[in-house]
Amino acid sequence: MASAISVQLDERLQRFIKQLQKRKRVSPGEAAIDLLQTGYFERVRQLHRQYLAGEITLRRMAKELGLEYRQLYALLEDLKLPVA
């Protein structure tokens, strides 16, 4: 389910969004979505590294990402990140 949000960006992020927009030839909204997705997937990888190091459980990882346990398994499978 998609939803719309309104956020205020500092000048540095505004410039970065404009650069993304120009480079990828997309709308400012699409550039912002790309940036958010990149950050999200980086967070998934950080949490996954913590899981592999034994610092957190999969349940904690799911909670941090706002996912149900089964949704996390599907995400990890899609990203080809090992569970064991």
Instruction: Write down the overall geometry.
Output: elongated
Provide the succession of SSEs.
HHHH
- Beta-strand percentage? under 5%
Number of domains: 1
Number of helices: 4
Rg calc: 16 Å
Model regions low in confidence, pLDDT < 50 over at least 5 residues: none
Distance between the termini: 30 Å
| Total beta strands | 0
Written account of the structure:
The chain has helices at residues 11-24, 28-52, 58-65, 69-78. With 84 residues, it is mainly α. It has one domain. Helix 1 packs across helix 2 (28-52).
Features:
84 residues, 68% helix, elongated
Helix-strand blueprint:
Layout lengths: L10 H14 L3 H25 L5 H8 L3 H10 L6
